[in-house]
Amino acid sequence: MAEEIKQDYWSYVKRQFSSNKRALYSMYVIIFMAMIALFADFIANEKPIYCEYKGNTYFPIFRDYGVSLGLAKWPKDLLNINWIDAKFDKCLRAPIPYSTTNQDFFNSGFVSPFGKQNVASTRWRHWFGTDDIGRDITAGLIHGTRIAFIVGIISMSIASFIGILLGAIAGFFGDNKIQISRASVIMSIIFFFLGWFYAFMTRSYTLSDAIGESIIKFLGELLLSLLIFIGALFAGYLLGFVLKVIPFFKTKVNIPVDIIVQRMIEILVSIPRLFLIIAVIAISKPGIVLIMVIIGLTSWTEIARFIRAELLKVRSLEYIEASEALGYSRWRILFKHAIPNAIAPVLITVAFGIAAAILIESSLSFLGIGVPAEVVTWGKILAKAQGSKSQMWVAIFPGIAIFLTVTLFNLIGEGLTDALDPRQKK
Amino acid sequence: MLKYIVKRIAIFIPTLFVISLVTFYLSVNVPGDPVEQMLNSNSEMGSSANAQASEKAYIDKREQLGLNLPIFYFSLTNRAVPQNLHEIPKKFHRQNLERLIDKYGNWTEIQTYYNSLKEFEFKVAKVQKDSTNADALINIKEKLQKLYINYDDNAIKSSFASITTNLNVSASLSEVKTYFQTVEGNYEKGVKGKATVYKKYIPAVHWYGTQNQYHQWITKFMVGDFGISYQDQRPVKKVIWEAVRWTVMLSIVSIILTYLIAIPLGIKAAAKKDSTSDKVMSTTLFMLYSLPVFWVATLLIMFLGGGDFLSWFPAYGVGEISDSDSFLTVFWTRFYHLILPMVCFTYGGLAFLYRQMRGAMINTLSQDYIRTARAKGLDEKNVLWKHAFKNSLLPIITLFANVFPLVISGAIIIENKFSIPGMGKTAIEAISARNYPMIYTIVMFSAILTMVGYLVADILYAVVDPRISYNKK
User: Cβ contact (<8 Å) for A366 and B294?
Assistant: First the structure.
C-alpha cells in the first residue's frame, strides 16, 4: 500500500519548506541554538552541576533556580562560597566553568584565545579569550544567545498579537462594516476615560512603585488595573443599552476601522524606528523587558499590513459567505474562520522580524543604551572592541554570533516565502 | 494627480500632529530637570551660595525656557491636584508635592507645609555660622533638602527628629526653632490631620488655554523657530543645519551608489538565473544583507583604520581643514575620511535593493510579452534593457521611500562609531543630554522627510506605470 500523502495545507507547506535544503538546515541550526539558549545555565556556569562539599551532596545549579524562585535557600557552607576556587570533594562542573560575571584577575585585560593563558589547566582555559576585566567571552556568548532569542521571540509575539488583531479587524471589517449605535459610541468614550482614570491615573504611583519592588508584584497590580479598565468599558457597554431607549441614540454610525489602523501604521513608520526606541528607552529605567516590549510595540506594522491584505481577499470568499448565511456572529467568523486561513504569510514576517529584533537589541547594546550594566549580550561584548589588534577576538566572535543568527532567521524567512508561494509549486 | 497630492498632504497634517504629541509627551517625561542642568553647565550660577539668589536664577531661567507654563491645553487629573501646580518652580519639589497630594489629597495644607518649609530654609540660611553650630547647620540643611523630596511618613519623621536634636545643639539656633515648629505642626496637624483622600477619586479637567508649553512650541516650530539647544545654548536651527549636511551628503551619495551598483547587478543576475555567477552573487549579497552594520564598522576600523593591521584609512572624524586649503585639498581630506563610513552606509541598502531588483526582473522575464519580444527576433540586450527593465522599475521606485528610514537608522550607528558630526550623532547626544528642543526637532524632521519620501514614491509610481491612476475613486 502506498504511503498516504497528507493533502491539507500545512502538510503541503511543510513539504515545500523541507524541500528547500538551505532553509531546512537553517532551521536545524536555530533549534540547536535555541537549545543552547535554554540550557545556557548548564553549559556555562561557575557553579558545578553536582558537587560534594563537607560531606553533603548538592546540585548547585538546580538549587540556584530554587533560590531565585524563592523555594529554596543556600546552606551556610555555600552561602558566600567562591565557586571557582573552592575545593570540592567531588564535583562535576559545567563544560565552561565560568559565569558571565566572573572576573578572572589572572587573565584580565583582553587575554588572547590563541596565546598562553594564566590558567590551572586546559579545563579552565578561556577558549574565546577574555575581555578587559577578565570575563570569559565564551560564557558571555552562550548567555548572550539566551538574551538574543528571548528578545527575538517575545518581541515578535507581542508584535504578532497586535499586528494580527489590528490588521485582521481592518481588513475584515473595512470602513463600513462595523456599525455601532450612537449610545455605545458616547458611552464607550466616556467610560474609556473613566476607566483610564481609575485604572491607571489614580493608581499610577502604586504601579510605578511596584515596578521597583518586583516584577510579580507589578504584574499583579497591572492585572488589577486592567480589570478595573475592562470593568469600566463593560459598564459603559451596558449603559449603552439603557440609553438606546431614546431614538436619537439608537441611530447607528460607521466606525472606519480600516482608516484608523492605516493611520496608526503611517504614524509608526514615519518615525525612524531605532530613533523612536532610543527615545522611549531614554525616559525609562534600563531593562531587557522594556526593550522587548518596545521592539514589539513598534514592529507590528508589517504584520498588520500583510494580514490586512490577506483578509481583504478572504472576506469575499464563499466559505465566509456560507458561515454568514449560517448565522454565525461576525467576530466568530473572523477569529475562527478568516484569521486561521490568512495566518500563514505572517510566519514569513515573523521570521524576518526576529532577525530584525535581534539586530536592534544588539545595536542598542552596542551603543550602550537600555541594557542594564549586569546583563551580558552579544552587542555589549562587541562594544568592548575599540579598534586594536589585541582585541580582535572580542569583535569577531560575538559578531559572528549575531551575523549567524540573523542570517539563519533570514534564510528561514526566505524558505517560508518560497514554501507559501503557490507559484513555486513543485 | 494634483488633487491626489493635495489630498495626501492634507492627510499628513493629522499624522504630524499625532507625531508631535508623541514626541512632546516623551520629552516631557524625560527624567532630570533641564533648568538645573543648564544652570549647572553655567558655572557662574552654580557657585552662588546664597539660597535666595540661586532660587531667583532658577525661576528666571525657567521662565526664559518657557517651562513655567502648563504643559498642554488642558489636563485630566483629580480634584486633589490644584490647577496651578505647574507654578511650583523646582521639578523635584513638584514631583514630591504630587506624591503628597496623591497620599493626603489636601492641597491647601500641603501648600502651607511647603511654604513653611521654604521659610524655614531661608531663616536657616541667614543664621550666622560660628564654631558652636557649624556641624549642626550642615546637618539641618542636609535634612531640609531631604524633606523637599520625601513623601514617606517615616522618612519625614526621622528628618524631623534629626533637625530637632540639631537645633538644640547651640543657642544661636533658638530663633529659627519657632519656624521649625510651624513646619512640624503644619505637617502633623495640617497635612496628616486634615487628609481628604477621597478627592483623589473625583476626576477633574483643568483648562489652560493657549498659554501652554505645547502651543508655544508648535506655533514657533511652524514659523521655523526651533528653540535653543540646552547643551550649548546655540539655536537648534544652527546646530541641526551643521549636522544635517553630513548626513544628507553621506546618504545621497550612498543612495546613488546603491542604485548604480544594485540595478545592473540585479538585472545581470536575473538574466542568468540559476547560473553559477547568479548563485555566487546572490549568496554573497544575501550575507551582506544580514551583516550588522556596527560589526562591519568595528571590523573596518580594526583592520583598515589605523589599528595594528593596515592603517589605510583614518578611523575617526571628518578631518582637519583650514580656510586657506584649496578646494581640491578639502575635497580629498573629506573624501578620504568618509570612505569607510560610506562603505557602511552603502552595503546594506545595496544587498536589499539587489534582491528586490533581481526578484522583480525574474518576475518580468517570465511574462508573455518578453517571450513575444524574443520570438520576433530581438537580441537579448534589447529585450533586457528596453522591455524588461522599464517594467521592473516599479518595485525599485517604491523602495526609494524605504531606503530613507534605513539610512537614518544607519546614520545613528555609523556616525557614532566613526565620530562624524552628523544627525545620528547629534541625535544620540541630544537624547542622553535630555536636550528636548533638539529631540523634538530631529524627530519632527525625520518624520516629515520620511512622509515626503513615501509621497514621492507614490507619485513616481504613477509616472512610471500609466496603469496606476490616483484620480479614480
Answer: yes
